[in-house]
Each structure stands twice: as C-alpha cells, then as structure tokens.
Amino acid sequence: MILCEKNRRATIPRLKFPSDVPSLSTLKLEEAFHVFIPADEWDERLASGMYAVNLGACPGGWTYQLVKRSMMVHAVDNGTMAQSLMDTGQVTHHAADGFRFEPPRNNITWLVCDMVEKPAREANLMADCLVKGWCREVIFNLKLPMKKRYEEVTQNLALLSERLSENGINYELRARQLYHDREEVTVHARRIWGAVPGRRDER
Ligand SMILES: C[S@@+](CC[C@H](N)C(=O)[O-])C[C@H]1O[C@@H](n2cnc3c(N)ncnc32)[C@H](O)[C@@H]1O
After folding, report:
1. What pLDDT sits at residue 182?
2. pTM higher than 0.70 for the full model?
C-alpha cells in the first residue's frame, strides 16, 4: 500500500524544541512519529529497549528522539556525536559509511536515515535493509532536486515498492512533506510479513 500525502496544516503536531538537543532536525523525526505511527501503537512500536540504527546521525537530533524513547541506538556517521547522547550509554557511534554499514545484531526494529544523498540511492538502500530483514520499519528523507520534484518522489516510491513486492514482502509505505521538512519529503515504510509461504515475519 502506498500513500502519498499532502501536508495537512490542521494536523501539525505542536512540537517544542528541547533545550538539550544537538540539532533542530530532531523535530522532523518527532513529527514523523506523530504523523506515521498512530498514538495507540506507540507503546508497541516505539517501545523502550528496542534497537535502532541511525544512518547520517551526527550531531544527534534524530538519535535524541530514539534515546528519549529508551532505545539503544547504533549511530552511523563520520562526524561527531553530541557528548550528551554518548553519555547516556544508549548510543554506539560507528564512524562509517552508511551505505556499507551492516547492523551488528538482527533484532533492529527501527532504521532511520537522514544522509544527504541522491533520492534513488537512499530508496535503494532502504529497500536493501528491509529486504535483508535488518529492520522492521524505516523512516528516511528524500532530499529533492530543484526541478521535477513530484516525479522524483513518485519514481522513488515506485522503486521502493517494486523492490519490496518482488521480494515477497507485504508492506505499508507512506510519504508526506512534513511541516518541519524543507526541500524534502519524509517516507515511512514498514515490513508487515512475507507474502511468500515460510517467510512470515515473526519478529
Ligand atoms: C542532515 S545531517 C543529519 C542530521 C541528523 N539527522 C541530526 O538530527 O543530527 C546529514 C549527516 O549525514 C552524514 N552523511 C552523509 N553521507 C553519509 C554516509 N555516506 N554515511 C554516513 N553518514 C553520512 C553527514 O556526515 C551528516 O552528519
């Protein structure tokens, strides 16, 4: 299922920028959680103790959101992570290329990605992560070019959709230009279960 949505101003959550957060972009991930995850599913899908991977994590605005929900985070970026986040003991910093990173464990629930990259490269990477079963849900940004933005979004959603379908994965896919987005669109994809017998996703 693909849903491509326009921003609906009436539903913009009122988000406060916490004083101890290393980057304003924290509000993008927080808004994405509000928009894509129904409130009555937060306890189950954004639960304490879950493992997450954050690609393009520095300085740590998105990681802050995951840490705030008591998740353990693998933060991947060659930059510097905010010391306040490292001090929580919940963050492992990998100074590595997000396109080559392989999660060190197989029970990752969330993979989020805010690397500044070509949309098609990101969409393919997200497809790889879901197809390999590295994570259950992804949130990432498509950083859009100056021209033909609508085409760019639809092409990349189609690409992701095709990759998941051809690998027998049932999924939910939604995209929205968030209030806190600028030249970008935020995408959420969730692996539900394998459509191929014997590949039911029990995690
Ligand atoms: C927009 S910033 C991310 C901000 C972050 N979401 C936050 O809230 O603090 C983009 C980051 O992606 C990182 N990045 C770009 N290409 C990358 C790659 N191939 N692998 C890992 N990180 C990358 C950059 O170093 C930069 O820190």
Report:
1. 82
2. yes
